[in-house]
Amino acid sequence: MSEPPQEAEPAPADGSSEPPVPAEDADRAPGWYPDPDGSGWRRYWDGQGWSSASPEQLAEESGGAPAGRGRTVAGAVVVAVVIIAVATVILATSSSGSHSHQAAAVSTTTAARPPTSTRATTTAPSTTTSATASVTAIAVTGPAITKAVDAYVAAYNARSIRQLGALFSPQLVRRTGAGEVQNLARALVVYSGQFAAETTPQLALAGVYVVPGAGQGGAGARFGVYAHGHRTRGTISFHFTQAGSRLLIDRLDIRDH
User: Fold this and answer.
1) Spatial separation of the C-alpha atoms in residues 53 and 108, rounded to whole Å
2) Are 188 and 165 in contact, with CB atoms under 8 Å apart?
3) What is the DSSP string of 68-86?
4) Domain ranges of the chain
5) What whole-number percentage of the chain has pLDDT above 90?
6) Which of 13-22, 43-52, 71-80 has the lowest mean pLDDT?
7) Cα–Cα distance measured from residue 219 to residue 252, given in angstroms and rounded to the nearest whole number
8) Which CATH class is domain 139-256?
9) 191, 161 in Cβ contact below 8 A?
10) Looking at per-residue confidence, does 30 or 136 come out higher?
11) Does the global pTM surpass 0.70?
12) Binning pLDDT at 50, 70 and 90, where does residue 251 land?
């Protein structure tokens, strides 16, 4: 773009072709300075005179950004980028240190846990579950309980210690009206004494009731025993426990009236 025509400056009084140097610029070193005309732009002083227009002025006239402003903005962008990069490095270092401390804390906490406690907790339920799964309770029906009661009456009337022993659980608890508590061995001794004293004892039950269940059951009745020429009456109750496909008597309560 061509520069606008400039007004011709008056010729110097001494007849030379160059205008005289202003007194305030006589000692000015060559370089860029604010426009002495007050335009707000910069102009170049070559030691003899001012340039007609500064690069900023020429750039603006051609539609571009002023060179001085471009350098200023570019400098600001560079500074901003440097600041952001430094801040990112600081944050990354801080975050890494924080994660390292957290990882160390978690590692220390995990190591402090006693491993034996965890094994005991996980092993015990599996053992219990296995033991529970190996025993499946069957339904103890009324007819099965009635059959077991009849087998007791038959063994007693046959005066057979062997048959009675086969009907009792090894954990038998036998209670009598006198308050005596007998285990299996003691109960068989008592039965042996009764059979020795009476050759033809006769046990009869009346009013029998049964209580079915799962893996166990119960029964009760009134009894009468005829021995030594007289009859003894009372109540008797049974508790049965499952033993494979059989029912065994594990509790027997006898009350004389």
Assistant:
1) 74
2) yes
3) HHHHHHHHHHHHHHHHHHH
4) 23-64, 139-256
5) 34
6) 71-80
7) 10
8) alpha beta
9) yes
10) 30
11) no
12) very high
Phi, psi angles (nearest 5°) of residue 56: -65, -40
Distance CA 44, CA 180 (A): 131
Contacts of 180 (CB under 8 A, 6+ apart): none
Task: Give just the sign of the alpha carbon dihedral 54, 58, 60, 66.
Answer: negative
Per-residue tokens: 32 = 């860029």
Q: In the block, which residue shows the tokens 């007791």?
A: 152
User: pLDDT tens-digit profile of 207-243?
Assistant: 999 999 999 999 999 999 887 677 889 999 999 999 9
Dig out the tokens for 220 from the structure: 């009760």
Query: Distance of CA 7 to CAs 4, 10, 52, 76, 156, Å?
Result: 10, 9, 11, 39, 151
User: Alpha-carbon dihedral of residues 89, 90, 94, 100, nearest 10 degrees?
Assistant: 30
| Block residue for tokens 């003691």 | 186
